[in-house]
Amino acid sequence: MDAKQVLEMDWSDKQQAYRLDERSGGHSNRSPDTQLHPSSAATQEQVSNPTTWTKFTQDNLLQAAQEEEASSRLRVLVEEMLRETTEDLINQRSTVDGAFIQRCQELMEAKTELQTRLTQVLQQIGEQEKNIVGLQKAVHLKEAPLRVVQSRLHLRSLRPNMELCRDPAQLSLEAEAAQIETTLNSLKQKLSEARSSLSNLEESRMELQKDISCKSHSLFIEGEKCMTQRQRLPSTSRLSGY
Predict the structure, then answer these.
(1) Nearest residue to 187 (alpha-carbon basis) of 135, 111, 117
(2) Residues 6+ apart with CB under 8 A from 1
C-alpha cells in the first residue's frame, strides 16, 4: 500500500471517528434516540491509545513527506533526462534536415549538369543527321559519274583485236575511274563513321534522359515525400512533454 492510500485510509478513519464523536457529543438526557447499551461501558479491546494513535498519524505524515521528496527528486531527474533527450532529438533533426537539403542541392546540380549535357548531345545529333544527309547526297552524286566512266571502259573493252589499245583516252578513263572510286570510298567511310557516331550519340541521349529521370525521381522522394513527412515530426514543446 503506497503513502497516498495510507493517508486516504487514515483520513477516512478519522473522518468517520469525528462524525461518531460529534454525534456522541450531541446526546443529552432529553435526546430521543438514546438507548441502553449495558455492555458498552465495559473496557473494550482498543487497537490504539493516545500515544500510538498520535505516532500512527505522525508516521503516516512522515512517510508521505518522504515519498513526496523522493517523487520530487525523481521528477527533477526525469525532467532533466527529458530535456537532454529533447536536445539530442532536436540536434539530430537539424543534422538530418541539413543532410537532406545538401542531398537535394547535389541532386539538383547533377540534374542541371545532365540537362546541359543533353542539350549539347541533342545539338550534336542534329548536326550529325545533317552531315549524314549531306554525305548521302555526295555519295549519290558520285555514283552517276562512276557509272558513266565504268560504262565507257566496258564499251571500250569490247574493241576488237588490235583496236583494244590503252591509248590516252583509255588511260584517262582508268585514272578518272580510280579517282572517283577513291573519292566514293572515302565518302562511304565518312558516312559509316557518321552513322556510328550518330548511334553513339543516340545511346548517350537515352542514358542521359534515363539518368535525368532518375535524378528527378530522387528529388521527388527526397524533397517532396521525405521532407513532407519530416515536417510532421512533433514540435519542440511536444518533444519536451508539454
Answers:
(1) 135
(2) 9
Nine cell digits for residue 111: 540534374
Q: Are 93 and 229 in contact (CB under 8 A)?
A: no
Asked if the structure places residue 92 within a domain, the reply is yes
- Rounded Cα distance between 79 and 200, Å, is 66
Best-predicted range by mean pLDDT among 37-51, 165-179, 210-224, 226-240?
Answer: 165-179
- C-alpha distances (whole Å) from 205 to each of 103, 130, 157, 240 are 25, 17, 53, 53
- Please indicate, yes or no, if residue 24 is contained in any of the structural domains: no
Provide the CATH number for the domain around residue 197.
Answer: 1.10.287
Question: What is the pLDDT at residue 51?
Answer: 84
**pLDDT tens-digit profile of 161-172?**
888 888 899 899
Domain carrying residue 182 = 62-239
Whether 26 is covered by a domain: the verdict is no
**pTM (global) more than 0.85:** no
Specify the number of domains making up the chain: 1
Q: Kindly report, residue by residue over 178-219, the tens digit of the pLDDT.
A: 999 999 999 999 999 999 999 999 999 999 999 999 999 988
The shares of helix, strand and coil residues in the chain, as percent rounded to the nearest 5, are 85, 0, 15
Radius of gyration of the chain (CA): 54
